[in-house]
Amino acid sequence: MKFQSPQSLKTIAELINAKFVGDENFQVFGTNEIHRVKAGEIVFVNHPKYYDKALFSEATIILIDKEVDCPEGKALLISEDPFRDFNKINEHYQGIQTFETTGQNAVIGKNCKIHPSVIIGNDVKIGDNCMIFPNVVIGDRTEIGNNCVIQSGTVLGGDAFYYNKNAEGFRKMLSVGNVIIENNVEIGNLCTIDRGVTDSTIIGAGSILDNQIQIGHDTVIGKKVLIASQTGIAGCCIIEDEVTIWGQVGIASGVTIESGTVLLAQVGVNRSLSKGTYFGPIAEEFRSYLKKEVKLKNL
User: Fold this and answer.
1) Active site positions, annotated
2) What is the CATH number of domain 107-288?
3) What's the pTM value of the predicted model, to 2 decimals?
4) Going by C-beta distance under 8 Å and a sequence separation of 6 or more, which residues neighbour residue 126?
5) CA–CA separation, 245 and 69 (whole Å)
6) Quick one: which H or E segment has residue 83?
7) Topology of 2-94 in CATH?
8) pLDDT tens across 107-136, in order?
9) Averaged over 50-74, what is the pLDDT?
């Protein structure tokens, strides 16, 4: 999530009542999660297991729960609760979607057909020649390209499924990212595409989604990807170009699927996959799976 204008390290520290390490005028351009963070952005870490990953990531400012040696050229924000304070920063500089208002600053292109029941959030951009069917919900800051079709009941830009467990229960990570739908995309009925926590969930140009598909926060779907119904893709995945995913496939978070891969029906993906055709409850190369089944049958 980018700030509308750069902030100083001291300003951020005062907002969350945190100690800082570094020049008080050190510029801060936004926040992001570890897998998408860039120079000038804040990343948070609250477990020693991940300290080094955060400290030596692309992040320039690390929101951390312990004072540690600060890498050269970076800054620290010392907080007793980085999760809480990361939420506080995001809410302060972006605001949280409520759907109480419709269409403030929305930009809609030429020749679009949008049913009156569609809910359009704030700062939404819709390209030319789009068709959006009844009861679609389009969340704040969503961007839809040209020649897109969104079928009935689909929600673009719902909250991320991202929680932190503590003694009191579960705390929700506030979602201040967005959804980007590129040109020539078709999305079926009753699909749900969560917005990014601090960045964008992206559906690449020319991709086709069937009905009842769930796509988690910050996932990037490539170009000309075909996804059949009841598929669930967790957050932070990368599905490269021209992947085919058949019905009821489940994909765990943080997985990368190489371009041209085919996932047959009901495959469970628990790891990144190189190009191939896969089948089975724990994805196996299809021919190997068939050979194994033949051997078992002949026992």
Assistant:
1) 217
2) 2.160.10.10
3) 0.90
4) 106, 107, 108, 109, 112, 114, 120, 132, 138, 144
5) 45
6) helix 82-94
7) 3.40.1390
8) 999 999 999 999 999 999 999 999 999 999
9) 95
